[in-house]
Amino acid sequence: MLLRTVSAPIAAALVALTLAACTSSTSLVSTRTQGYEIPDTALQQIRPGQSQQLVTLVLGSPQSTNTFGDQTAWYYVETKVRQTSFGMTMIDSRTVVAVYFDKNGKVIDKAVYGLEDGKTVTIETRRTPSFGEDRTFIDQILQSF
Q1: Backbone phi, then psi, for 76, in 5-degree steps?
Q2: CA distance 83 to 122
Q3: Which UniProt keywords apply (predicted)?
Q4: How many whole angstroms from its chain centre is CA 104?
């Protein structure tokens, strides 16, 4: 009889704990932004003729820069991703804002690129051979005997 009265509250606690684990606050998929969050109002403030200092005040420091001859480009990348609890990451959208400057540091143009503007690049998997033999850690230990 005592066992039955003790096991009922324990069973109720287990059911409550199980239901609490199934709430939406512990979602299996989380959404987040990697890189910059680029608001539309900030993009509207960037106009030709403005200085690099003003662009830095509005958008912040660029994530990447590039120089072609007399022109310089600053890149701001925003990537919205979904990540599962199991570590799988899926890219929902990617926006790249490129701000182009002349040799005097004044804005010439700006461009907004999305995932559809990108090209897939295959990465070379071949390795440059090194001198000697590539040995694993275990091989090195066994060879020392």
Answers
A1: -120, 120
A2: 24
A3: Cell outer membrane, Membrane, Signal
A4: 33
The number of CA neighbours under 13 Å toward the Cβ of 118 is 11
Cα angle value 113/114/119 (rounded, 5°): 95
- The CA R_g of the chain, rounded to the nearest whole Å, is 27
User: Structure pTM?
Assistant: 0.60
DSSP 51: B
Residues 114-143 have pLDDT tens digits of: 888 877 777 777 877 666 667 778 887 888
Domains identified in the chain and CATH numbers: 28-118 (3.30.1450.10)
DSSP code, position 87: S
Q: What's the chain's length in residues? A: 145
Euclidean distance between CA atoms 73 and 68, whole angstroms: 8
